[in-house]
Records
---
Amino acid sequence: MSEPKGYVEKSYERDTRYINDRITADGAESGWKAEPGRYRLVAARACPWANRTIIVRRLLGLEPVLSMGLTGPTHDSDSWTFDLDPGGLDPVLGIPKLKDAYEKRQPGYPRGITVPAVVEIESGKVVTNDFAPMTLDFSTEWRQYHRDGAPDLYPQALREEMAPVMKRIYTEINNGVYRCGFAGEQSSYEDAYDRLFTALDWVSERLANQRYLMGDTITEADVRLFTTLVRFDPVYHGHFKCNRQKLSEMPVLWAYARDLFQTPGFGDTVDFEQIKKHYYVVHRDVNPTGIVPKGPDLSGWGTAHGREALGGRPFGDGTAPGAVPEGERVPTEHNPWVGADGQLTVRTPGV
């Protein structure tokens, strides 16, 4: 998700006005029907909100029916751009800037150009950039296109319990790190800091005796927490001043994060270099020099976590996702735990 021009505010409030159309199984209400080859997911590996969609799409095996375009890790005040692609053009949409797809949908689009976004390929229009329901719809409205063995990330029986858990994770943790980093006054920062670590202590207590947030299997809730945790030490601890402790100094959350990272579909989507470059280069009012730190040491992500002792089956009655498509592999030099074939080089016992 890109941010509006100028990041630091007296007390940071995220603009949550999105193009909130839904792509549904029959398209009856929205006019947007889930169909193979009709849409393209535009994401950025740097962005935690977009990283959610990359993980869920991979876990569910939607790659053959929903193509993915990846922007570069940095952007200007105008738009995310396709500077990683030959000629600086998305090879399917044929555009240099994601803004072009927003303008196709609404000329003079007045808000931030954000990722993730789903674009209808034929019209070139953004269908939705409302990231919260997007992945839930991948689980429900795209179900007929899931791979054999896809996990149930949004179990019907758990949805009522999941709702407040995911809400607190979003308001206090996912968005909480931004409230710390973009606070323009000491009191606002300290309030955000206290709220963030109160919530991290809460999830730590929840995870002390169960392997995943909702019990024995991975759900959407775990995906949402993971994308913040994996960025914590590389970015949020220093850049956003979330420095009571590093993730690696919080035993339960560090073990939990490593467990997920070592699970196919999670760690193989993480590009640490792009993550650091995005935050440290783009947020010039937070980091005026644009210098990107060399650290931290990433070797710990592949170490044993011991969470298998809590039992559980990561994919429930399903199976791990298959090979990473060749064009979607994270470079080994950007994530040392990803091999040349795009697969994780570490595996958690029981996965």
---
Amino acid sequence: MTVMEQRGAYRPAPPPAWQPRTDPAPLLPDAEPYRVLGTPAAAEADPELLRTLYAQLVRGRRYNTQATALTKQGRLAVYPSSTGQEACEVAAALVLGERDWLFPSYRDTLAAVVRGVDPVAALTLLRGDWHTGYDPHEHRVAPLCTPLATQLPHAVGLAHAARLKGDDVVALAMVGDGGTSEGDFHEALNFAAVWQAPVVFLVQNNGFAISVPLAKQTAAPSLAHKAVGYGMPGRLVDGNDAAAVHEVLGDAVRHARGGGGPTLVEAVTYRVDAHTNADDATRYRGDAEIEAWRAHDPILLLERELTGRGLLDEAGVRAARQDAEDFAAALRERMNQDPALDPMDLFTHVYAEPTAQLGEQREQLRAELEAEAESEGARR
């Protein structure tokens, strides 16, 4: 006879697992991406914010084209362009407070730059010089993350720890649609919802995970719908509408800061350039598709709104473009300077306290470099 079979044994009633813990209806995203530009809602947008977004978009586009050119000149090893996605990049950086944290992916160098990171430092990883070229604590920007979606659990951990300490901090984690197919994405969302961590997840759905279209990754109605499975709100927004992205992300940040927990935002956008300079995008998409998205360019949409409302004239457009050119020229000049690299820096910042094995490797490299220098000196 088992304990449960004994007379008078405690028999707890199982919980009604089939019932939802919360009403799913408020968590579901809208049927169509939320828009501001070209709608009556645009009249309520702050004109100064719209002008700031525009200036940053123009500068961001020029940053992308300049960085792409640097790969062709051998000054960058690789560059994942965010051309066409600048509205997501700019809005993500601008909605955060000074104490908040940004967790970017490898495609999000523009967001890091708008957040305040030096543009050359932001490109250092892609140059192959350092694992990250900047101090993450200075501007509260985590290192650019090349493994897909591994930055998401990091964002949740930081946000959860900040809440436990009583710090007023929100983490905004950026990821592409391809990253949503990784286990890290699901683990991060589950932990964030269970802990009610102050995190905002921004999925930039740009249509392709390298060459794999979204339809071959998921059968969900939208990526934003995945939020309800974890118990958090899902928002669907037009990722080329800078005002809409800023508004939706701003709402999500305030929701998280107020103790409401995480939000999953899917921004529907398009990657105009190839995955990286090493990718041949003509293998999996045609020019007609790209041109159709160019008509929905984030700069074009915002410029049309601003000029139509008399908030931007030709002089303002020229000023924004000139600022972008000056920015690109300064970046180009600095990137054309050969960096002074020390191979021994390979061992810097790996651990707070270097391990014995790392110390052995460091001394081995030091000996090899010294021997090489002596041999070079003897040949002279």
---
Amino acid sequence: MGMTRRNILSMGSAGLVAAVAGKAWGQSFPVVLNQRYPDPSVEILDPSFAKYRIYSASVEKLATGMRWAEGPAYFPEEGYLLLSDIPNNRIMKYDEVNETFTVFRSPANFANGNARDREGRLITCEHSVTRRVTRTERDGTITVLADRFEGKRLNAPNDVVVKSDGTIWFTDPLFGIHGNYEGEQAEPEQATNVYRIDADGKLNAVITDLVNPNGLAFSPDEKKLYVVEWKGTPNRSIWSYDVGADGTASNKTKLIDAADFGALDGFRVDRDGNLWCGYGSNGALKEKPISVAGRDVYELKGKSEDLDGVMVFNPQGKPIGFIRLPERCANLAFGGPKGNRLYMASSHSLYALYVGAQGAV
């Protein structure tokens, strides 16, 4: 049975769970979350965001059945999106032509971030066990680009971006080795750095002063590099660096502070320089519990139902728009034939929305 909104509603929750279990992800699964135009899920926080909301475009749920969706990368030549399902140790493939969702690679060495290089090849951060950055060649063979720095193993390569000169930049926090849910627990051997792989294969530690750097992206002119600091103080933050002609990063400046206890994660930049950021609760608890059914319960400082989605900031760091989702968005990518379809990897599911913006890269 094809997945349509009509038969999903008729199934009920038990039927839906059964339908998406097993190999149901190979079926078409578009679900429109809201029927009204404009979609109330797309919130304008500043008038400047109005031009990016398409009046007759709605948030669509394209696929589900993952445990933690991450690292989407779009391949325009073939018209498909790859994204990681980290705890299930696989990379998934959404074909936007056939509207199918299938396994691309399993096992995948607990892949996290993915990117397309300038020659159309897949770059992957394998963030546990192998703890390396790889390139998938056109014949399917895998080339290891980086797995050690100064003789010691990398921690857990997380997110990756490819600059126009072909250099590959990635973050190396601890998430893939600090437990056994998204890989295998292990002791770190490095500081949590941001690295650059040059065309000759040399690995350089470009940024060394961030605690667990996460998502990263360049401004449209590539003169600035933005990096999420997962352990920012007092909140998660995005820092801006000036990028020199020699590939160095300097003039560290805080651009965004998630003061609402939002969980800044992966993000992308559009051609106007706006930052489209995966968002959700950072899990911080209130200092004092409340009584619930006779039990003391510590609530979240930032509630998931208020924060889950995509927060859009202008180049000055001001929030201008919010796309509300029923699940926390970890990362996203611009895709579609015209680069204006926003794909959102969100906890268990993949969502999409056509917007009046195009990705910068």
